[in-house]
Amino acid sequence: MTNPRPHCAALNLSVIIPAFNEERLLGQTLREVQASLTPLTALGWATELIVCDNNSTDRTAQIAREAGATVVFEPVNQIARARNRGAAAATGGWLLFIDADSHPRPELMRDVAEAIRSGRYLAGGATIRFSEDHPVANFLTLFWNGLSRTRRLLAGSFIFCEATAFRKVGGFSQELFAGEELDLTVRLKQFGRETGRQIVILHRHPLVTSARKIKLYSGRELVWFFLRALFRQKATLTSRAACHPWYDGRR
What are the residues facing 80 on neighbouring strands? Predict the structure, then answer.
């Protein structure tokens, strides 16, 4: 087994949550995230919780402050910019991006700690499990988890990354309104080849995430988006209007 890196002994981890009009789900997410950090506290790691208010019009920022999170503001409504703004405010040696509708368990965080302490990885993600049983959600989960593990692709809902590596590759692309996590994956893999480290996809304890998009949008809307993203990738992913499931405010 690879020996843990010395700088990991009292490592600082910054948890970053981008949030746009998330007053319905953010409170529970913050409670779940804070509870999940217990294994890291037991290791003596210092952690901080940052919520990026991505120009919300509801009580998102207030809920985050009441939960004890540091709140930063990003006026341009874009997931990549919100994550980058949170990362710019972070002081940790490692960054952990979690979506506002996703709930990690302590066991997953323990796996994150093991991966970091191994010294073999510069970044990682996790397989996912939807919070509710739904045929379409179940199919998408099975498909994505297989692809993610095989190709080592990061899901935006849960990404941990060494802060130095994240900044070296330029963070999330602000040209993209969706798919920015896959673009980041490509650049991190290239950097990993140069530095002798890899991306890992943790799978023993999947991230629990909301299936709300499947309820809020019709199958026709979702299929149409994915077909456009597949066959007109650049035109679709660089357009906020084309990526409306992330930006039209349905919650």
Answer: none
User: What span, in angstroms and rounded, lies between the C-alpha atoms of 13 and 242?
Assistant: 34
Taking only the tens place, the pLDDT of each residue in 101-156 is 999 999 999 999 999 999 999 999 999 999 888 787 788 889 999 999 999 999 99
d(CA 218, CA 228) in angstroms, rounded, equals: 16
Tokens 């130095």 label which residue? 164
From the list 96, 92, 101, the residue with the least C-alpha distance to 83 is 96
What are the extents of the domains in the chain?
A: 9-210
pLDDT at 177: 96
- Strand, helix or coil for residue 209: strand
**d(C-alpha 200, C-alpha 36), whole Å:** 20
CATH architecture of 9-210: Alpha-Beta Complex (3.90)
**Which of the residues in the chain have pLDDT under 70?**
1-10
3-state DSSP assignment of residue 25: coil
In sequence order, the 6+-apart residues with CB closer than 8 A to the CB of 34 are 49, 67, 68
Q: Measured between alpha carbons, how far is 29 from 237 in angstroms, rounded to an integer?
A: 27
Please tell me the pTM assigned to this model. 0.92
Q: Give, in order, the Cα–Cα distances in Å from 57 to each of 79, 139, 243, 247.
A: 16, 34, 20, 13
* Nearest Cα to Cα of residue 97 among 52, 62, 151, 31: 52
